[in-house]
Amino acid sequence: MTTLEMLNAAPQRLTVDAALVAEAIDAASDCALVCTACASACLSEDHAREMAVCVRDDLDCADLCGVTARHLARLNASDKQLTLSVLAACIEACVQCASSCAPHRDAHEHCRLCEQACNRCEQACQALLDALKTPV
User: Fold this and answer.
1) What are the boundaries of each domain within the chain?
2) Distinct helix (H) and strand (E) counts, the chain
3) Average predicted confidence (pLDDT) for the chain
4) What percent of the chain shows pLDDT beyond 70?
5) Which of 82, 94, 121, 134 yields a CA-CA distance of 20 to 30 A from 36?
6) Please, are residues 62 and 82 in contact by the beta-carbon 8 Å criterion?
7) Average pLDDT, stretch 49-75?
8) What pTM value is reported for the model?
9) Residues 112 and 105: beta-carbon distance below 8 Å
């Protein structure tokens, strides 16, 4: 079963394209897992102390992405402002995390993969945010 199938099976009707919501949920879920794994990998590096900012940003991003995925999966249309705020926070966390991983991407594959996951999540959440802001 895919996220899109689950969204389409729910009795609630979305005010935006379900594919945008599904992509944001999937990207945020993936990003949460990748950021958690990156933080763990950073802590295992020989120079882990130098990667403290990256670890902190990984963990912040993982937390916010996880919350975003779960919030979006609830299909809670009753509080649009909360959804906009959650998406904005997730986007900011992804931007911050990607910029923290970027300097390490050539030396550490986990940072390169994390940066990519953050960029994907940022783009998916921004697309959904833009769609939600557009008057129907």
Assistant:
1) 17-133
2) 5, 0
3) 93
4) 97
5) 82
6) no
7) 94
8) 0.94
9) yes
